[in-house]
Each structure stands twice: as C-alpha cells, then as structure tokens.
Amino acid sequence: MKQNIRIGIVCIARKTFDYTTAFEIYKKIQNDLKSVENVEWEIIHDLIIEIEEAQTAARYLTSKEIDGLVCISGTFALGHLVLELNKIIEKPILLWGLNELPYDGGKIRLNSVCGINLNASNLYKAGVKNYHVVIGDEIDEDWLDAIRVLKVFKISHLGIIGSKAKGFFNLDVDELDLYKQIGILIDHFELSEIFNFEANKMHISERITQIKSIFDVSNITENQLEKVAILTVKFDTFMKSNKLDAIAIRCWPEFATDFGISPCAAMSILQSENKILTCEGDILGSLSMLAHKAIGAETPFIADFSQVNFEDDFSVLWHCGVAACNLWNGKCIRSLDTYFAGGRGVTADFVMKSGEISMLRFDYAPREYRIFLKKAKGIPMKKELKGTYVKVKFEENIKEVLDKIIQNGIAHHISIVYGDFIKPLQIFANLKGWKIIE
C-alpha cells in the first residue's frame, strides 16, 4: 500500500485567454483525481486569477498541512501567482500544463505551456528548484509517488541497534545533516536491549511452528530453532513497543558470540510480514527500503552486488540469508543453515524468484547525497549457494554497471524490489537536488 499524502490543487488563469473552458477542464480534472489511491485532496475549486486570490488560497492550503502543491496552468497567467503561492506554502510544486485546444479564429485559447515556461523560469531564477513539470491531460502519478517518499521520511521512526558493523565505514552517515536533508531522526539502542528484551513464550511457540512450516530445519539444532523464534519475537515486539518503522541492526559479530545465533533468519521472516530491517547497521539501506515501500513496492530487501560473470554477462545479487522468505522462487527447498560464524550463522537459504527488478541506494559521501538507480531482470538459477540470492542481467554490459558502482564509491548494500520503480525516485532526487547515478 502506498504512503498516504495530502496534496493541494489550484488552477491559475488569465481572462485574456479562454478561461471559461479552462474552468470546465479543471472541474473534470477534480473529478478524475478521486480515483488516485491514498491521496487526500485539498482543492481550491475556483480559478485563481488575481494576486489576492493566490494569497488567500495559499493561507488556506498551508492550514491544511499539505505535502505538495499541484498548480495547473488553466491558461497563461500572471507571473506573480505561483510565486505568491510558493512564498507561503513552501512545498514541492507540480507545474501542470494543459494540451492546447483547437484554435478559435486564429487565437491561442489557453497558452498553458507558455505559462509553465514562465513559472518554471521564475521559480528557477528565484532559487526554488523543488518543482516538476508535466504537460497533458492527467496528473503525473510519479510525482505523487516522489512526494510519498518525502512524506515517509518526515513521519518515520528509524532505530539503529548497536552501530554499523565492524569495518563498514562506508555505511556511515552524518545524522544531523540527514535530518536537515529529509527531516528524519535516528534513535539509538544498545544490542543488550534486544538481548535482554522479554519474549512471550506463547509467541515463541507460535513462531517455532511457523518457521517449521516455511523452512527445512534439518540442518540446525532444536536450540538454534528456538533462538530464531525467540529473536523473531524480540525484534517484532521491540519494534512495536518503540513504535519503530524500520531498524538497522549491527548483526555481527556480537549476535553470534553473545546471543548464540546471527539474526538473518529472523529478519527474513519479519520482512515477509512487511517490516523493514537492515543488517550491518545500514541506516541508508533502511531509508532506501522505506522509500521503495512508500511508492507501493512490495517486500523490499537488501542485497550485495556480489558475484559477476563477465563472460556470460550476469551478476548474482546475494546476501547472507536476510531476504524476505515470501520472495522464494517456489522451486528450490527453503532451508535454514549455519554456514558461517563458526556454525552460529543460522541464515535463510533459497533462490529468489525471477522477474523485473528495480534497485535503489540512497548513498552519502562527504558534502553530497547520491541516488543509485538501476533496472535488471531476475533470471532462473539453481540453488547452489547458502544465503538468499537472485541472478540478474542488465541492459548494459555487467562490467559497465560494476564500473559505475565502483567509480562512484556506492556502498555495497542495495534495496531491491520486483517491478518498475525508477521514475518516482528520479523525481525525488531532482526535488532534493541529489545526484542521480544510473
């Protein structure tokens, strides 16, 4: 389900053009917008023609705490109007131009596109860059999805348990700068808070039954199975108790040494239940997954850009058993295993399903944020590895993709979802002024 947002709608016009027809088009648009999912519309129903009308509308929409403003150029309009709206509202703007109508006696009836040109130029030269433009008969739902990403960051509660994993300096982020950029604060918890968190015995028993129904558990001990169940209950209850929308976990080395197992299998189960958990203390990985979820992608998961085959031109996107267990290919055996950490790994092992794949990484480097975006196609492979993984092919040669990641210093964790979820994130990046790496 997509993140709910509240959007303001105005239509600006000038009486020297066919504003009466523009008003009829605007009324139809208002009706059409009712079908868009998870959007609360705050509509200024009359055309805005005068400066005072723009100011009044702006004050009203501000009182409604909108997340973004759609400004339809019903006709070419006075250049003051959008600037007055922006001055008070200060939210991302969609400048929406209408297709020109058939000429009437040699006269341009709407001149809407020229109005878009005027308003975009005014905003740009005023230093306002968080606008997006669409020309046509329908709202740009990719822009709406970009607003959903902005919204989810504003309202989400993200926790980090422990810190980033040992040596993973590239996952670090300046937390106050991140707050400045997107408005999110990170709450810190100690690993001991999870280790010592109480787990309900009945819930543990239910989780044991669930785990046995999903996985072949013949390669782990009864004690390890119980610990997976306990940890699943602990994470689940801890997130609910602390009202956390996502957690980034320092998953090694302390979990194996101090708790007795790594958290991979427990994370796989909870992610299949639409919870966001990232391993190795990866805060920006959690944000990448939250963004994917906000725009309607189902069950995002983190993987490494792991193995490449230059000769056959493919890559294996792999991680040590944390991907959601419902993303299994339906053919191989899903199992739990202990192939690392001295037999205390306890990871989920399965091949993931094939299909269209979208990748996202919000990434931080000194003085800049970047967004890595890439599409690929997941293709079938045999279960030959431990962990969770999918074999992919890209439109470009695999060496070109790898070179782009390496040369730009992109961190090794990528949020992956099934389907095409690229365009909204491109718009989000442009609204934020972040560099796009594709």
Explain briefly what this protein structure is.
The protein has helices at 19-32, 51-63, 80-89, 112-125, 141-155, 175-182, 191-195, 201-214, 222-241, 254-259, 264-271, 283-294, 398-407, 423-432; strands at 5-12, 39-43, 68-73, 93-97, 131-135, 158-161, 186-189, 246-249, 276-278, 301-309, 314-319, 335-337, 347-351, 355-365, 368-379, 388-393, 413-418, 435-437.
Number of domains: 2
Number of helices: 14
Largest sheet: 6 strands, antiparallel, barrel
> Low-confidence parts, pLDDT < 50 over ≥5 residues?
none
CATH superfamily of the largest domain: L-fucose Isomerase, Chain A, domain 2
Structural class: alpha/beta
Distance, first to last CA: 26 Å
Strand % is 15-25%
Q: Please state the CA-atom Rg, rounded to the nearest Å.
A: 25 Å
Task: Please give the number of β-strands.
Answer: 18
CATH architectural name of the largest domain: 3-Layer(aba) Sandwich
Chain-averaged pLDDT = 96
Shape: elongated
Q: Strand order within the widest sheet? A: 10-11-16-15-14-17
CATH T-level fold name of the largest domain: L-fucose Isomerase, Chain A, domain 2
DSSP helix fraction? 25-40%
CATH class of the largest domain: Alpha Beta
